[in-house]
Amino acid sequence: MSDSGVTIRGRAWVYGDNVDTDVIIPARYLSTSDPAELAPHCMEDIDASFAGSVKPGDVVVAGANFGCGSSREHAPIAIKAAGVSCVIAASYARIFYRNAINIGLPILECPEAASPGAVKSGDELKIDIASGRIENAANGRVFTSAPAPEFLRGIFAAGGLVPYVRERLRGKK
Hints:
By secondary structure, the protein is α/β, with parallel strands linked by helices. The chain is 30% helix and 18% strand. It is built from 8 helices and 7 strands; from the N terminus they run βαααβαβαβαβββαα. It has helices at 21-24, 35-38, 50-53, 74-81, 94-103, 111-114, 150-158, 161-169; strands at residues 7-14, 59-62, 86-89, 107-109, 124-128, 133-136, 142-144. Strands 4-3-2-1-5-6-7 form a 7-stranded mixed beta sheet. Helix 5 links the parallel strand 3 (86-89) and strand 4. The longest helix is centred in the middle third of the chain and has 10 residues, at 94-103. Residues 1-5 have low confidence and may be disordered.
């Protein structure tokens, strides 16, 4: 992500509907909330190759109801710690959506980009969080999600809600 939290470039990892928090980070690893310990196990029950192959800046693209299941923050923490710069999904479980914002993981809802065949695993994506523009360099398709409002971009750039609030309280608006 750029330092302004606006532009993201990365390779896509594509998953289907109803990816729940137990496959994002299996319960057997929840004895810690340390991002460095969670990252190597991210997605291992749905894609054993993910944690060993994901590169910083990569993007997860998924179908409807991404992050359903448990309300714990471990799932978005594991995704972010694995190096994922953004998640694009047709829709999110509300608690996952809120937790992702809280920890500073950029997320966009874009059913068109998440539709079957629109983006394939390995496709290079360019995402402008401020405008909601998602470009697939592999097939030239362009998708539009609702743009992230300025305050959300601020939360993403700060690394989460707590650092964002600390900055605001210190007068670094």
